[in-house]
UniProtKB/TrEMBL annotation:
<dbReference type="Pfam" id="PF04314">
    <property type="entry name" value="PCuAC"/>
</dbReference>
<dbReference type="InterPro" id="IPR007410">
    <property type="entry name" value="LpqE-like"/>
</dbReference>
<dbReference type="InterPro" id="IPR036182">
    <property type="entry name" value="PCuAC_sf"/>
</dbReference>
<feature type="signal peptide">
    <location>
        <begin position="1"/>
        <end position="24"/>
    </location>
</feature>
<protein>
    <recommendedName>
        <fullName>Copper chaperone PCu(A)C</fullName>
    </recommendedName>
</protein>
<keyword id="KW-0732">Signal</keyword>
<dbReference type="InterPro" id="IPR058248">
    <property type="entry name" value="Lxx211020-like"/>
</dbReference>
Length: 158
């Protein structure tokens, strides 16, 4: 009986240790991030993903869908500055090289969300579409604008 209980505890510990990391064909892709809340009166927002590719092969993110709504739209974008004016441009695909990470951030790469009303404390499910046919769903927390500003202000890189 002790052996069965111990094996069960070990299995549970292994499941918890790998939560948030998905293994496919001996490879791993770790996905995290957050979504900004929508401003009052607006229905647009942005999601910022961090994609860590622990695989031996590169991946390509080719699309994003909002899982909870058929009417809302999600698309990959980047922000470019020209002549002091920031403009958003669509991105057809986002390469995630083998063994590397791609981190989206305000003022750069992001997932544009249209037709959404999001408040801090909500969660948003996104469906990520990859060039190899893989589809991954991720649930991201919605952060208030104040929390997002404080996070970037106090965050230091080593």
């Amino acid at each position: 009986m002790k052996t069965v209980v111990n094996k069960g505890l070990i299995a549970a510990a292994l499941l918890l240790a790998t939560a948030g990391v998905t293994f496919a064909q001996g490879t791993a892709l770790e996905i995290g991030g957050f979504v900004r809340e929508t401003l009052p009166g607006l229905s647009t927002s942005a999601a910022y993903l961090e994609l860590k590719n622990h695989a031996r092969e590169g991946r390509s993110l080719t699309g994003v869908e909002i899982a909870q709504s058929a009417q809302a739209l999600a698309s990959l974008h980047t922000t470019v500055e020209r002549d002091g004016i920031s403009r958003m441009r669509p991105v057809e695909a986002l390469a995630i090289p083998a063994g590397q990470s791609v981190k989206m951030a305000p003022g750069g790469l992001h997932v544009m969300l249209e037709g959404v009303k999001l408040r801090a404390g909500d969660n948003l499910s996104l469906r990520l579409l990859f060039a190899n046919g893989e589809i991954r769903e991720v649930v991201l927390p919605v952060r208030g604008l104040q929390a997002d500003s404080e996070h970037h202000h106090h965050h230091q890189h080593g």
